[in-house]
Design a protein that fits this description.
Blueprint: E1 2-6, H1 15-19, E2 23-26, E3 31-34, E4 38-41, E5 44-48, H2 54-63, E6 69-72
Antiparallel strand pairs: 1-5, 1-6, 2-3, 4-5
């Protein structure tokens, strides 16, 4: 399972930070950062979800008010 995070779309509500420890507040930019991620394209970050953190990753995506977070299963199908 992996997460794609569109940082450009992020509006800094930080609800993801409350739901999954992989997200951190960047108060300088007013946006979240996805710890351990790699930048796939401009402001599009990707990270594999560690075992046992799948629920938290999915919940972080569900609470994002601007849908900046997408979760994909191992087959590449979007689940959130």
């Amino acid at each position: 399972m992996h997460v794609k995070f569109d940082r450009d779309t992020c509006v800094g509500m930080f609800q993801c930070v409350a739901e999954w420890d992989a997200f951190e507040k960047d108060l300088n930019d007013g946006k979240a950062d996805l710890e351990g991620s790699t930048e796939e394209e401009d402001d599009l970050f990707v990270v594999d979800v560690p075992d046992g953190e799948e629920f938290d990753a999915k919940f972080a995506a569900r609470v994002c008010p601007v849908d900046a977070i997408e979760v994909y299963d191992d087959d590449g199908e979007q689940v959130v």
